[in-house]
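Researcher: We're teaching a course module on how sequence relates to structure. For the next exercise, students receive a sequence and then see the predicted structure as tokens, so they can try to spot secondary structure elements on their own. Here is the exercise chain.
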Amino acid sequence: MRQLLLFCALAMTSLGARADMFAIFREPDGSTKWQYVANTSAGVLIITLVIVLLFLFRAHRRAMRWNRALTDIKVNLEQRVAQRTAVLQQTTEQLQEREAYIASIVNSMPVMLIGLNQQLHITQWNKKAEEITGRPLQDVIGKNLWEAYSAITLTKEQVQAVLASGETTSLKHTQRGQYTFDITLYPLDNQNTGIVILISDVTKLVSAENKLAERDKVSAMGELASAMAYDISLPINTIFARVSSARQEIEAAELGEVKQFLLQEVETVRQSAQQATAIAHNLLDLARAHRDSKQLAEIPPIMDRAIELASDLFTDVNGITFKYINIRRNYADALPQIPCFATELEQVFVRLMRNAFYALNAKLWDEHNKPWINIEIGTFYDSLWIKLEHNGKSLTEEEQLDIFQPFFALSEHNSSFPVEQRLSYSHFIITDHHRGQMAVTSDDEHGTCFNIQLALR
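Model: And here is the predicted structure for the students to work with:
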């Protein structure tokens, strides 16, 4: 359009330079050629309209393309909005499910759970806390802990110390004979978030553990008392038997025969009295020798002392004497020292030898079959192994099950295993005090073997 107007202007300027611009529209007589004017104007108008129509068509096509592009953009945006809305809705549902799941876990916990922020105001308060305090979450949320639960045994200083250090702390609050609480404070990973307090009522558990500990003590005392009484009864019975026999023999014998007989009987009584004295001293040594911490010690010397002690303790006038049993010692070279309670281990070894002594006395011997006890000490990987075996009377399967059980322990079978030969206290010393292992194997062909495993460090 601009080009057409420019063209007309140039043409008129050119015509005006040479003659009258309307001369072409006049007759020679000076009248106007209206038909020519009309035709020219119509032509110019038609050309102008055609050009305008072309521009409008072009603009319409551009508008159509832009409209389609806008429509595609709108559809694309609507799809994206729908997708984002669906994702947000799904995420919201997942968050709600997780929040409900976490809340269910928190409320199902059998301990009090209290959440605090940095200002020590309550942010979490589970069902157990509601039950114990009698206050629902709505009443305590946002309040100071000690305002909401004044009976709590924690102090502000203790909570603030955990917040400052960022380390988990466990506390115990006990009123003897009434209640016991375990209190654990967990600072959250984000230190600006706060802290979680778990309060567990362990009164019943502690009471049960105390009863179990008392039962173990009673069992150990009963086993020790029974074994010691049995050991002491042997020399005492021997003394009484020999005195009664001596009286009868003196009354019936001639004077010349009495002296030799009395010397023999007096020697037997002396040995029995010495045995009873050794038993009493051993019991006193055991009572005085307890240590609060383990000491490094070599096991072979402890075993040797136990053998010497057993030689003084175990004598049966009607059977064999321990000092005459063939003791085979097989100790490995350069055995390391281990942390232990030496006196306790000595008592364990003595009790194992007592068990072997009774088993050897329960069996008949001849020239070709003599009693022996074999002791081996060695290392294997990170453990020290002690093996004590003998060829005495073997243990039945039931006795192997009962030998490490307390004397009053209930079992599915009625065991007649004697109390004085049980090794529950020895087993307790090895497994509990020394964190080791203790086991027994026994049969008629290979005899009985006690195995002890102790850590080297």
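Model: If you want an answer key for the exercise: The first strand starts at residue 112 and ends at 116. Residues 109-201 form a domain with the Beta-Lactamase fold (CATH 3.30.450.20).
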